[in-house]
Structure formats: C-alpha cells, structure tokens
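Hi all, long-time lurker, first post. I run a small reading group and we've been trying to get comfortable going from sequence to structure in the token notation. Rather than ask abstract questions, I figured I'd post a concrete chain and ask someone more experienced to write out its structure so we can walk through it together at our next meeting. Sequence below, copied exactly:
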Amino acid sequence: MLCDYLVQILTARVYDVAQETPLEYSSNLSARLNNKLLLKREDMQSVFSFKLRGAYNKMVELPPEILAQGVIAASAGNHAQGVALGASYLGTTAIIVMPVTTPQVKVDAVKARGGQVILHGDTYDDACAYARQLEAEKGLTFIHPFDDPLVIAGQGTIGMEILRQYQQPIHAIFVAIGGGGLISGIAAYVKRLRPEIKIIGVEPVDADAMNQSLKAGKRVRLSQVGLFADGVAVREVGEETFYLCQEYVDEIILVNTDDTCAAIKDVFEDTRSILEPAGALAIAGAKAYVEREKIEGETLLAVACGANMNFDRLRFVAERAELGERREAIFAVAIPEGAGSLRKFCECLGRRNLTEFNYRIADQKEAHIFVGVQIQNRADAAKMVQTFENCGFPTLDLTDDELTKMHLRHMVGGHSPLAENEQLYRFEFPERPGALMQFFGSMSHNWNISLFHYRNNGSDYGRIVLGMQVPPDDMEKWQAFLDTLDYPYWNENNNPAYKLFLA
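-- Answer (accepted) --
Happy to help. Here is the structure in token form:
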C-alpha cells in the first residue's frame, strides 16, 4: 500500500490547476515560540485551499465517457470549489451538495466556478447522504472529499513539495484533520522518505473523530460536531484515511475555539492573510505542542490549508483571539459595598490595561465587579487572582468559562427579584433561516422567559442562553421538552458566574 501511494503521489496530475505553494518563515510566531515555524501556504491556491489537488487528481483519471456524464460531490465548501474548478477545466458538469450552514463566501465561490449548488442538511454527513442519493438517480460520479486513494494522493503532493522545498531537519509537521485525506497523503509520502519527522494531526475539541477513532482502534462516529471550523466538521473519518493515520500519524493535538482564533490572528500579523478556522488549526496545534513540550530551537512546519473566511465572522474571531492568546483574563471580583472600595480595587489593579469593566450594586454589603484585564500568560492570570485575594477581594477566574465568554460578559448586572423559579440553560443549534422561531415554537406557552441572550456568528452554531420560569410542578414537562430537542444543551443553574450576576 505504501509503495502504491509513493508512486501515486509522484505521478499525481495536480499541476494543471494547482500551483506549488511557498513555504514561508513565520517571523513573529517563531520569535514568540523560540522555534523556527514554517507555513505551507495552501491558502494561496486559486480556490484558497488545498482541496483542488485531490479533487482534480481523481477527476482527471476518470474514463472520458464517465467524466462526460458529470460529477457530484458533498462538501462544506473547499472541496466543492476544487470539484467545480476541475469540472470546468475538464469540460464537464458538477453538482455540489453543501450543508445549509456553509459560509456564503464558499457557496458563492462554487457558483462562480460553474458548479450547481444544492443546499441540504446541517452537516457534511447530511449533505453527503443526499449527494449519494442524487449520484444513483442521475448516473453521476461521486468525488469523495477524502476517502479515495486518488484524492489522498493528490493531497500528498503537498508532502512531496515540503521535502523538496526544505531539506534540512524538521522536528514535526502539523496538519489539520477533518476526514483525514490531507494528513494521510502527507504522512504516506513523508514517512516513506523522512520517517524521523513527526506527523501531528490537529482537530477541534468538538470535532475530533480521528482522535477518538485512533484511541478506540476503530472508526468512531460522533453524534454531533462543532461547526466553528466548518472545513473539518466531519462526524466519521474515512476507512482508508483511518488506516493510513493508524500507520503513520504520531499523535493528535486538540485545540479549542479560542486557540484557533488566536492562530488566525497570529498568521494575519505575520502575513496579512486571514485564514479560515480549519486553515488555522495546524498553527494552533503547533503552538500547543511547543507549550506542552517546552522545546526550543527546533524547526516546525504547519500547513495553512484554507482561507475561505466569511467576513462577518471576524468580529467573533477578534473577540476570542485575545483569550486564545492568553492575553486577556476575565474575573468576577467581590468588594465591600461602601465608600472607597472601588478606589481600593483600582489601586490593587495597578497599571494593568482593562479590556472590560462592569459594576452594579448587588446588595447593601457586597458588590460584584465583572472585569477583563490584559495579561501576559495564564500564569499571570493566576498571579492576579492572588493579588486580588491579598487585597481582601474574593475573586473567581472566569476566563475559561464558556457561558461567561459567549453571553454573560454582555449581560452582567441582571439580578431580578421577579425571576422566580428560573431555570438557566445554554443551547446550540445549526444557524439556518427560521431556526430561532422553530426553537420558540417548540416551547410550552405556559412558561415565561425571564432571561434571553442570542449570538449569531456567521456559519457557526447559533448560541442561546435562556432563563425560563418553570413552576416546580412543571419540571417533568420541562425535562420532557429538553429531551425532544435535536441539539445539545447545558444546565447552567449552578454556574458560579450566573449566581453572581444574574440569579
């Protein structure tokens, strides 16, 4: 199998449509990490992603009579553009089934390259099932985004270019994983010629199908996946890619949304280019690896694999990047309610830069302050907690609390004596037209909403925090309502930030 892949990668026909992308030195990140970090700039392809390599290599190998009947694909966007471009170049037609959560920039790009777009389902898997149905009905050829040897070989040409472009020692290559086609192709080539180089996959914590599969020793299908990094939002990895990752991938690192947003900012500061979340995963993984291993002076390489970013998501990215860079901490601080207390707190802060400061009287004895502060690192945040405590101010570090980051920082100061029997829950659902009204329509009209906050972040999940006044006798009905939902929810009634600022 290995020799087959080596030959297939060396003979892959990708350069009719793809270019050999540069391997660029990331000066700012290298200085911060005390290691040499190189970026493989696949975001500079004509479709702003590596995906056209594998898609075209598969299509160009089809018999002419099969190719003439047309092709079909399912994709969250980047593979779709590669298929559309390849079909146009080869003179055939392409139907692309995309999830309704796909960023509009990717939908428009597919249409601009001549692809016929059908929006169906909330995830890649939904879109894939429908594409397979149309494949049979219309007699088309399905171009798989990752689980096909020719697609894998096309992506593997990136590994071939890396070893040709940089012949000095490399400690590790970091690669984002969705279905596994990209890392499989790179690993199959690199491990054959340079087995000492570590191949490290990077997945989001809420879409880690390959990580869970490798741990289980078999393919694991996730019940749901987070959609922030929509390009890797895959519930189940491929059979072939799973086999190759078992053989050649050294480890997988998981990163969260904040880490990914910070990596997007890092690459922008070095290159003035804006990667999409999936495109920045490898950089986030490299940073996490350096922090964990405490290595210095090594050469690390990260594949910047895509840049199809919706502009309206940048606000969210900028907001969360500071947290991901460990440059902002969020605290809830209790101070005595009395003259001079606020001044004493400010003196305790010293010359720290504030990013946020919210204050509202809570009762006659104690006030709670919600404050964001610029920090150098997470250790610095811990020192700040100790400083506040030494000044006599009980402090709660909320930096890693998702409810705080998504909602409460926009809502603090909302105590209400009227909110009797309040139940506080967080919900996520795929962002699509009518989703919010569908959510409301499923509730009982006998319950009163006492608190509500909703955030829409482009193609990410819609996020809601809901306070509902549910009488004790109705708790069984409330739980029955929750059990009917098709999307995840979290009980936040015991969240300490909620108790301080809203309960």
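A couple of things your group might point at:
The mean pLDDT is 88.
The CA atoms of residues 265 and 272 lie 9 Å apart.
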